[in-house]
Every structure is written in structure tokens, then in C-alpha cells.
Amino acid sequence: MVKINEVGTLEQDGDVAVLTIDSPPVNALSGPVRAALHDGMLQALKSDAKGIVLICGGRTFIAGADITGFGKANTGPGLNEVFDALENSTKPVVAAIHGTALGGGLEVALTCSYRVAVPSAKTGLPEVKLGLLPGAGGTQRLPRLVGAEKALGFMTTGDQISAADSLKLGIVDELVPENDLRGGAIAFIRKKLAAGEKPPRVRDRDEKIAEDRKDPGLFDRFRKANARQFRGQLAPEMIIQCVEAAVNQPFDDGIKTEQRLFGKVIVSPESAAMRYMFFAERQANKIPDVPADTPTRPIKKVGVLGAGTMGGGIAMNFANAGIPVTIVEAKQENLDKGLATIRRNYENTAKKGRITAADVEKRMGLLKGSLDMNDFADADMIIEAVFENMDIKKDVFAKLDKIAKKGAILATNTSYLDVNEIAAATSRPEDVIGTHFFSPANVMRLCEIVRGDKTAKDVINTTMKVAKTINKVGVLVGVCHGFVGNRMLAQRQIQANAILNEGAMPWDIDRVLYDYGFPMGPFAMSDLAGLDVGWFKEKSTSSTIREVMCETGRLGQKNGKGFYDYDENRVAKPSPVTEKIIKEFAAKAGKNLRDISDEEILERTLYPMINEGAKILEEGKALRASDIDTIWITGYGFPLYRGGPMFYADQIGLAKIVERLKHYEKQMGAFFKPSALLEKLAAEGKKFTS
Ligand code: 3HC
Ligand code: NAI
Questions:
Q1: Tens digit of each residue's pLDDT (9 = 90 or more) over 135-191
Q2: DSSP-based helix, strand, coil % in the chain, nearest 5
Q3: Within-domain flag for 162
Q4: Could you tell me the distance, in angstroms and rounded to a whole number, from the CA of residue 350 to the centre of ligand 2?
Q5: Which whole number is the average pLDDT over 203-221?
Q6: What is the rounded CA–CA span in Å between residue 141 and residue 108?
Q7: Which of 370, 387, 394, 528 best tests ligand 2's pocket when mutated (most atoms within 8 Å of CB)?
Q8: How confident is the model at residue 76 (pLDDT cuts 50, 70, 90)?
Q9: How far is the CA of 25 from the centre of ligand 1 (A)?
Q10: Is 127 an annotated catalytic residue?
Q11: 555 with 621, same domain?
Q12: Which of 6, 11, 127, 149 is labelled catalytic?
């Protein structure tokens, strides 16, 4: 075995050279990795080997460019030199893929003559998720393999696909045994050597893009079909232009187009925000006083109390991860309903082809329904999702205390209530923690993990790890009303309602927030949830616009009329009735309505949220500003390309935020008073995030 450098080795196995890259954690294309690829190839070409296998050590094939290296000076050979060595090799080279071949990693594989993968491997070009485009030839080579339309879908979603799908698409040439990637790759290259095939180059393939040239309308169709999803972002359009170049320009010109457009996206504010979020999400796992080596408790069996909206979704997360769940309900009919909803959800997923019918049965088989809390006796973790009422929560936690085995984690899904008070209902507050999932709990990625005053460190570490196991982003927060996300959301809601009372229509406010990048505005959201959630006819006194709406039978999407009018396809239209209600409500209160600018709507809905975020930091209820951003991106549909409210505030400039808050404070009162931390950072010219 020859050592090429600190991350590369070359070995010979008979007539095949094996070039191994081993650069933890994910073999990213750093200077040393590029040098090992380049120099390793030159040495392999000089050797008497006839074929070459490129393989990686550790958990994955190359997972992309080194994201930490963007914007820094490059050391070692450039990617072009590496690609030249691989693509123009006189000896066939096969990329042997395990883990994830992502971004620049997949682009390296596409310059090899062939690609083989183990069945568990995945491929993807996720650059768009960082506001980038595949800038190492991916936009030019992939369409030549799979055609423009599939390449566009692949690159503009950035999603990973399985090895089996990669094989179907032609990205991978053959699957090899899971436990023998190296042997499989060597056997594959020997087969090719025996066939005497000249090493093929993806860049020379033309059959797919020749077909695409017959359909020049394909790009505009794709733009139109995805306009809503791509709004506010530069990278998807740049990717489309690159693929247009792949189809219509010679390869070398297409590469130049790709490089030119990569130069644009890499300096875009969206990409800066998205790259920040990549690291923010990972940073959330790091808790200063709960280091990674803190012990964990084994979680092999889970209990969920309550099979309602949240309990069902929470149980699904565990079943998806292969962990058995006992669901306990108060009433048989609610248990039946809850389990039926879970089954329906799984069957719908199966209908979309994302899981098989056998998966549905396997997952349902992991769920056991019961009406008896004693069935929680052997659970390692019990998550309570009953009604949001302190007396009920205390009562069930006192019962859980008696039933749960020693060391079991007792978690509450409360949205607002005091986790310390709930913990005090047990004799083991150190085992109690909040796990605040978001609706729909089987879909939304966020889980706010609420640390009580007495929560033990191993309980925190275990719960953070559990979140990862069930594919959630766990963010640690402290006890306060509404924790981080809902507490900040309340500020936005107060202002949205105030602005409505001053003269803006629901659709004006919604439009401003939609254009900012949210999937929907607060009033469309209320219509979706139902205006009568928490409304009681007998107690209603026409004291708010919402009460009046409910009193006049405007309940939201469910009956086709809420703030908006809905047609039979649930398409929303501004409602003249709503407008009349708002105007009459103001007239009754003797208020003059005024025109409110879009700028004022945006500032008054976002800046108080940012101010609340600053208070949360001041009080230590979030560990860092980037945790707040992670919560908003993964739980509330905050546009990823804005980087979260705190990152956004930094881009606007904290001095400007303070100035505008003071402006509104003067006009409208103390609600807008900037927090001490915000004022301090602004005065010092500092930022929330670094
Ligand atoms: N560059 C630098 N560091 C990276 C990295 C990358 N491309 N990918 C992952 N890391 C780091 C993470 O920050 C993390 O560091 P930490 O332990 O200090 O927090 C560590 O590697 C492990 O990452 P994860 O915690 O995410 O580990 P997982 O096993 O959950 O996931 C993964 C592994 C699927 C590879 C995931 O890390 C991932 O998706 N990485 C990003 C892949 C990507 O976006 N590649 C494209 C880059 S852009 C590009 O290639 C441009 C090119 O076209 C020119
Ligand atoms: P839900 O009303 O849909 O379900 C609650 C279920 O608990 C009902 O089926 C009820 O029969 C059952 N239940 C009540 N008392 C019980 C008991 N003593 N033993 C066993 N089962 C009992 O309520 P939902 O929406 O699922 O909320 C549950 C919790 O999750 C609440 O604390 C809520 O604040 C929180 N939450 C709700 C979110 C949402 O969007 N619905 C989002 C995040 C948190």
C-alpha cells in the first residue's frame, strides 16, 4: 500500500489499482482530498494496473465540496485538474459508492468511467439547498445521462435518491453486495476489462439531450410549473439556464456557462443564508453543558398518551424508525379513530409510492392500542399528548410516576404550559422533559426539547438523540410561555390583528408575508385551522373581528367561508363579506381606517418577533440566535433563503431594526420597545449571529 498523502492511499489488487480516500467526517473535497485524487490517479496510471477503483473510507463516499472552504483561498490542485485525470484516464475508473455521493462528490463520480453502489447508498445534487448550483460539471453531465427533465427535477429539489433509483435512472451502472463494495467494484472493473471496452465518458453521450433538443418548450414549462416553489430564489433559475446550455451548447461551452452562473449564486444573499442554516441546524445539537459523550438511556419501547392530532403523528415517527409504540387513550372511540387516521396516512403515503403495502403493515404492527396506562410499565420513554390543560397534565403525570419503570423518560408535548410544574407532579422531576412536536407531527421536522430546572443531563442527551433517530431536528429551549417558536409567533399574530383593525385587509397582510417567502399568511392559516378553534358560541361577545366572523358562520376553509371565500376546489378569493365585517367593526368602535403600506405590514409583523427573539436570548431560553432560526425554518415555514428571523435581522442591520421599533413605539406604545440586548448589540455595531 502506498500512502499518497494524509487522506489518500493506493493499493494494487492483481490487475486493479484501488485508490482510497479517507477524510472524516464526510470525505468533503478539501485541498488534501483533491490532491489525493489527482496524485493518486497519476500514480495509478503509471502503475501496471489495468483498471482503477475509486473508493472511500468511513461512513460515506465524497459528500460534496467542503462547505467550510467556500470563500477561502484554495490549496492543492483545482477540481478541473482532478476531473481531467479521472475523465481522460486511459484506464477505466469505477467510482465505488457507499453512504451518500452528494454534490461535488457525485460530480466526481460522474467523471469516472463507471459507477457502482451498494443498495443502501444514495446519490444527490443538493447544492440548491445551499442556494448554489452543481458547479463541478454536474449540470452538464447529468442531463447527458438522464435527460433534461429528470436532471432539472433532481437538481432543483436537491433530494437524495436511493441506489435502486440511481440505477434505474442510469446514474449508477450496477449495484454490488452491501457488505462487499470493494470486491464488487473490482469484479465489475474486471468484467469491463475483459470486454475490452474503451473507458466511456459521460460528456460524450448525446442520445438523451438530442431528444431534448426536439422539445424547446420544456424549460419554460418547467419554470411555470414550479414558479411558486422557486419564488425568491436565484439558484433554481440558474440551474435551468445551465441545463438549457447542456442541451444546446457544446460540452466545453456549457461548462463555461455553468462556471459563470456558479459565480453569481455563490455571492448571492440567499446562498449565504442557506449555508448559514446548514451549520445552524448542526450547531443546535451542541449543548455546552451536555457534551456529546454524556451518557444516554436506551430507548427501545415508547409509550404515547393520547391518540389525537398530535399523539397519532408522534407515534408514527417512532413506528417509521422501527421502534414499537404503545398508544393509550381515554376512550375506545378516540383510540379507534386515532389508529384509523394513522393507517389512512400510511396508506396515502403508499399510494404515492413512497412506501410499500408491506411497510404499511409493518409499521401498523409496531403500534399497540390500549385503554390502560399500566401498559406503559415497560416503556423506556412515554410522551404525553392529552388536552392542553394543567390539571389534566398534572393528573396524568402523577399516574405515570406510579406506573413507569425506573429511569423511563417522561415527556410532555405541551405547547405552552410550565414543564417545571408538570414535573413537580412526579417524584422524579429529573426524568421529565418537554418534547414539543409541530403539527402534522409526522411531517414537520422540528421538535423543541424543553429543559426543565431539574431535567437530568442524560435525559436531555437521550432526547436529543431520539429526535435525530426519528428524523427530527431537536432544538433545546427553556421553560417559558409558548417556549421559543409560539412565543415569537404570538407577537406576529398580535400585530397582524392590530393591522387588520387599522385598515389593512387580511389578503393585504397575507400577500406581504407570502411575498416575503412564507408558505401562507396568518389569515389564510387561520382559515385552514378553523376560525372557531377555541371559540365558544355562548361566550362570544362580538369583541373581536374573529368573534364576529364566527358568529356570522364564517368558520374557515371547512365551510367554504372564513377571511376568504373558497370555491369547490378550495381556491381562496378575497371576501366582500369579510371586508364589510371589518369596516363595520371599525365604524362601531369609532375608528378611522387608513391605508397601510406593505413596508409597515412587514416591519410590524417581523420586527416584534425579532425583538422577542432578543428577549428570549437575554433570558437564556434559547442557547443561541441560530437555534431560534433553526426553530423558525424547520417548524414555521420561515423561508430558508432568508436564513431565519435573527439572521434576517443581522442582514437588515440591528441599528435599523432598533430605529424602526422606536418609531412605532412612539406612535403605538410600549409593545414595540426594543429589548436591552437588541439595543446593546445595535449600539456596539454587533450582530445576533456570527
Ligand atoms: N463540507 C464540510 N463539512 C461538512 C460537509 C461538507 N460538504 N457535509 C457535512 N459536513 C460536516 C457537518 O458540518 C458535520 O460537522 P460537525 O460534526 O462538526 O457538526 C459533520 O460533517 C457530519 O455531518 P452531519 O451531522 O450532517 O452527518 P450525517 O451523517 O447526518 O449526514 C451528510 C451526512 C448526508 C453528508 C450531510 O452532512 C450532508 O448533507 N452534507 C452536505 C452535503 C452537501 O450539501 N453537499 C454539496 C456541497 S456543495 C457542492 O458540492 C458544490 C459543488 O457542486 C461545486
Ligand atoms: P387532541 O384533542 O387532538 O387529542 C388529545 C387526545 O387525548 C384525545 O384523543 C383525548 O381523548 C386524549 N386524552 C385526554 N385525556 C386523556 C387521558 N387522561 N388519558 C388518555 N388519553 C387522554 O389534542 P392535540 O391537538 O393532539 O394536542 C395534544 C397536546 O399537544 C396538547 O398539549 C397540545 O397543546 C399539544 N400540541 C398541539 C398541537 C396542534 O397543532 N394540535 C401542536 C403542538 C402541540
A1: 999 999 999 999 999 999 999 999 999 999 999 999 999 999 999 999 999 999 999
A2: 50, 15, 35
A3: yes
A4: 27
A5: 97
A6: 11
A7: 387
A8: confident
A9: 8
A10: yes
A11: no
A12: 127
